[in-house]
What does this fold into?
Amino acid sequence: MSDLEIWIVILALAVATAITRSGFWLVGHKVTIPRRVQEMLRYAPSCALAAIVGPDLLLEPASLAFTLVNGKVVAGVAAVGWYLWRRNMLETIVFGMLVFTAVRLLHLF
It folds into this structure.
């Protein structure tokens, strides 16, 4: 691809992003979201986080790796325990990452 084509693609993606994100600002006051949909949207962030973290936590490049030898699984179990104790998502993410970093740095598994 030439430099001009790259810049055209970047500009087109920027415009597409701006249009899709500003749509709710432009017509948002005219659209009402049903209460049931609003209730379901409360779970969207946690579902997105699970969809990102789940495969990386449970899968190695070639196969399923759900064992306690896998440091990711150990950190995931610790994070779930922390969440059940504290009920705070941000603390859970930080705690899980701290446990995973400690497991990696200390070469426990």
About this structure: The longest helix spans residues 3-27.
